Amino acid sequence: MGRARPHDRNPAGPVPRISWAARVREAGAPLAVRPYRLHFTARLLSWTGSAVAPIGLAFAVLQIGGGPGSLGAVLAASVVPQILLLLVGGVVADRLSRARVMVWSNVVCAVAEVAAVLLLVSGVARVWHLVAMSAVCGAAGAFFTPAAGGIVVEVVPAELRHAANALLKIGQNTVKVAGPALGGVLVAVAGPGWALGWDAVTFAASALLFSRISLKAKTVETRAGFTADLREGWDDFRSRRWLWVMVCQAAVIVPVWLVGYQLLGPVYGQQVLGGAAPWGVVVSGFTAGLVAGAALALMWKPRRVGLVVCAGTGSMAVPLAAMAAAVPLPALVAAAGVAGTGLAVGMTVWASLVQERIPADRMGRTLSYSTLGQILPVPFGYLLAGPASHLLGLRTTLATGALIIATAAVAPLAVAQVRRLCLASQAAKDDDGAVTTARAER
User: Fold this and answer.
1) Does domain 225-442 have CATH number 1.10.287.3240?
2) What is the CA radius of gyration of the chain?
3) What parts of the sequence cross the membrane (predicted)?
4) pLDDT 10s digit of each residue in the chain, 442 long?
5) What share of residues in the chain are helix, strand, coil (percent, to 5)?
6) Which of 64, 137, 140, 373 is the Cys-Cys partner for 247 at CB 3.0 to 4.6 Å?
């Protein structure tokens, strides 16, 4: 796609600047679409439950006599079913109504958590009950994730999808700021069982809202079965070089980040910063960055998506490097804010690109392969974190993690398809506003 020649330039002159008031109106436009408004409200409700649930679950395990090992088993029980069933969930999301899949996924989670609440309140709960509840919710999530990833394409016009994705990120990240505090208060006042009860209520309410989303009936070709659907999804995934290259990047960065920030970060807070309170300030800086990044993505639609996504993921190396260098607390908080901002911008822009490039009838399966590639290495990262920190030391392990993230973030830019990635709406215009021919690569 070449630049416009001088004689092809827009005779009307420079494109006028868009006022901030107009940008704000455009940013809120998706909320005028009723199906999206229902989806947005349902997700916001569900996220309030999801922000509270981890605290309730942790203290529920402790309340019934479990320890760190028991809590680890409960958490692992939610991940394993997702790994096993995610590809099946992608096929189901492409075959059936995505709204219906989301309804039943939420209903299943609500029922499982109500059962756990009743057992906790009655005083007969055991760790294996919570393991079973976590496994059921993890299995439901394997069906919910591919369906939720594709529904925006069905309910929002193409020109509004970027704003729609950004609004969802703003809602999700804003809840992350207040959710843990709410969970702590709820556990302290009413007990951990009622914190899980709130999560169950939000699942049920979200299911009700999802049930009111009307989608066009899908026309599904007669196929040989699930195996054929899985093969078609795999063929679509691997045929898009830019997609699997970026998934490989995420497969490296996601486990390293989770180990460095979520697992070793609190250890750093205890050993170096002096306790949980200063580490909580760092976490607040990261969540504030997430909100700021989502707001920035709402108002800014970058042209070079590949560069922006790689820069956003690369920013996640900054707080790990700051911890390795033992910088003062204010500098570490700022570093965490930079990572949150970069991550939110990158994720929002990436979601818009995927929705634009992947056919709607294959979205669920392609996203399931993408998600599976990112979460599959996570358990191995957790297993290696302890031995690595003992062998290398805490700060050296964090420095190594920062180096790995930075390297993995830059590596995809060696691929021309990644460097040229851009949204069609942005590629259709030259830098000075001249219209050119948009040619999207697979």
Assistant:
1) no
2) 22
3) 44-64, 70-89, 101-121, 127-153, 242-264, 276-298, 305-326, 332-354, 366-385, 397-416
4) 444 444 434 444 443 455 555 556 666 778 888 888 999 999 998 888 887 887 788 778 878 887 656 766 787 788 888 888 888 888 888 888 888 999 999 999 999 999 999 998 888 889 899 989 989 999 999 899 888 877 888 888 877 888 888 888 888 878 877 676 677 677 777 788 888 899 999 999 999 999 998 876 555 554 557 788 788 888 888 888 888 899 999 999 998 998 888 778 877 887 888 876 787 788 888 888 988 988 888 877 787 888 999 999 999 999 999 999 999 999 999 999 999 999 999 988 888 888 888 887 787 888 888 888 888 887 777 777 778 877 888 889 999 999 999 999 999 999 888 888 887 655 544 444 433 333 444 5
5) 80, 0, 20
6) 373
CATH class of residue range 31-161+176-220: mainly alpha
pTM given for the model: 0.71
Residues 6 or more apart in contact with residue 50 via CB below 8 angstroms: 175, 179, 199, 202
Domain assignments of the chain as residue spans, ordered by start:
31-161+176-220, 225-442
121-130: Cβ within 8 A, 24+ apart: 121/191, 121/193, 125/60, 125/64, 126/64, 127/61, 127/64, 127/65, 127/66, 127/70, 127/73, 127/74, 130/57, 130/60, 130/61, 130/64, 130/74
What's the token pair of residue 141?
Answer: 């999530």
Rounded to whole angstroms, the Cα distance separating 2 from 383 reads 49
Separation CA 228–CA 202 (nearest Å): 36
Q: Encode 241-269: b = buried (16+ Cβ within 10 Å), e = exposed.
A: ebbbbbbebbbbbbbbbbbbbeebbbebb
How many beta carbons lie within 10 A of that of residue 216, not counting itself?
7
**CA 169 vs CA 46, 199, 380: distances in Å:** 13, 20, 28
CA distance linking residue 268 with residue 274, whole number of Å: 9
CA distance linking residue 186 with residue 199, whole number of Å: 12
Give the three-class secondary structure for 429. strand
**Could you please report the per-residue DSSP string of 176-227?**
HHHHHHHHHHHHHHH-HHHHHHHHHHHHHHHHHHHTT---PPP-PPP-S-HH
Q: Residue 209: is it exposed, middle or buried by C-beta count within 10 angstroms (0-12/13-18/19+)? A: buried
CA distance 71 to 400: 28
Residue matched to tokens 């099946």: 88
SS3 assignment, position 385: helix
